[in-house]
Amino acid sequence: MEEENKRIAMIVHDYFEQAEMEDVRTLLQQAGYEVNLIAPDKEEVHGLHHVELGDTFDVDMQLSEVLPEDYDAVVLPGGVVNADNLRIVPDALNFVESMYNSGKIVAAICHAPWVLVSLDIIEGKTLTSYPTLKDDMKNAGAIWIDQDVVIDGYVITSRNPDDIPAFSQAIVEAIQQG
């Protein structure tokens, strides 16, 4: 399959870390992938620049309109509020779990690995996240390391906006290999 036919679901809730959505999406689009911004039951979502209010973005599709089998990867941007909200949205959890169970790429940056904790799928996996999630990750059975990008099978994790280039490159390489 050609690169431009590869589709990536980028799932967000309100108040995501804007750079982790916008910059990652741009890098993935520049690599030739279709990236759909998907949210649960929202027409638009709001970004944050750390704690300052960011921009508003139109959603391409709502979670209820998409099927995991139509995507090659799912990317979860961080942001405390975003990740904390996503981890209790059944449609978001079901989508990510289906991608994981299908052996598709699941990429989470910053606070987004909280979603993986809530799915109870990280036991024995080597991952990273924003440092404040270290205890949550370890308590869920993960091996947590402080590294810009960590790849364990088809799960890709990164720590923060500084890691966006390495995170995006890891996603591109995983899709090319997969």
SSE topology string: EEHEEEEEHHEHEHEEEH
Shape-level CATH architecture: 3-Layer(aba) Sandwich
Classify the secondary structure makeup into a structural class: alpha/beta
Strand share of the residues? 25-35%
The CATH class designation is: Alpha Beta
Number of helices: 6
CATH fourth-tier homologous superfamily: Class I glutamine amidotransferase (GATase) domain
Radius of gyration: 14 Å
Number of strands: 12
pLDDT average, as an integer? 96
Our measurement of the CA-to-CA distance between the termini, rounded to an integer number of angstroms, reads 10 Å
Question: Helix share of residues?
Answer: 25-40%
Count of spatially separate domains: 1
Q: Can you walk me through this structure?
A:
This protein is α/β, with parallel strands linked by helices and 178 residues long. It has a single domain (3-177), classed as Class I glutamine amidotransferase (GATase) domain (Rossmann fold), CATH 3.40.50. Helices cover 33% and strands 28% of the residues. The protein is built from 6 helices and 12 strands. It has helices at 18-30, 80-86, 90-101, 113-119, 134-139, 164-177, and strands at 7-11, 16-17, 34-39, 44-49, 52-58, 61-62, 73-76, 105-109, 126-127, 143-144, 149-152, 155-158. The strands form 3 sheets. The chain has a 7-stranded mixed β-sheet, with helices on both faces. The chain has a 3-stranded mixed β-sheet with strand order 2-4-5. A two-stranded parallel sheet has the order 9-10. Strand 4 (44-49) and strand 5 (52-58) form a beta hairpin. The longest helix has 14 residues, at 164-177. It is globular and about 35 Å long. It starts with 6 loop residues before the first strand and ends with a helix. The relative contact order is 0.17.
